[in-house]
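Changelog-adjacent note: as of this version, every example in the card shows the full chain rather than a window. The one below runs 133 residues end to end.
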Amino acid sequence: MTSDTAARPAEKLAILVWAADPGRPELCATPFYFAAAAAAMDVEVEMYFTARSVELLQIGIAEKLEAAAGSGKSVADFRREALTFGVKMYACPTALISHGVDAGALIPAVTGQAGAAAFIGRSLDPSWRSLSF
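Full-length structure tokens:
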């Protein structure tokens, strides 16, 4: 890696979403908000959902959650904004099985399934940065 490469900012962001638990809706909108903000800045963004966070990709779950009670904006609204900006969303296959979520019950906009190895690969790639929620 040359010093020019090291000085250049990354144009790609991988976000690990593991603590955004539907049982704690106040934690669920922020990952989508950060993803949308980065994508609006022309950053390529991928989100990797694991643990109970995979439930946020299930049809009907995020629609019922408000990050701020009485806000009138559902977690699904934040998810939709991120998708509008081109954010790619991946569900961990192990988490799907662990939490009884059938892949057929995921929103159609989910890019696919990818787990730990895919996220770690992004984290180790010098052209990518990573965040965790």
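Structural remarks: The domain at 3-132 is CATH 3.40.1260.10 (Hypothetical Protein Ychn; Chain: A,).
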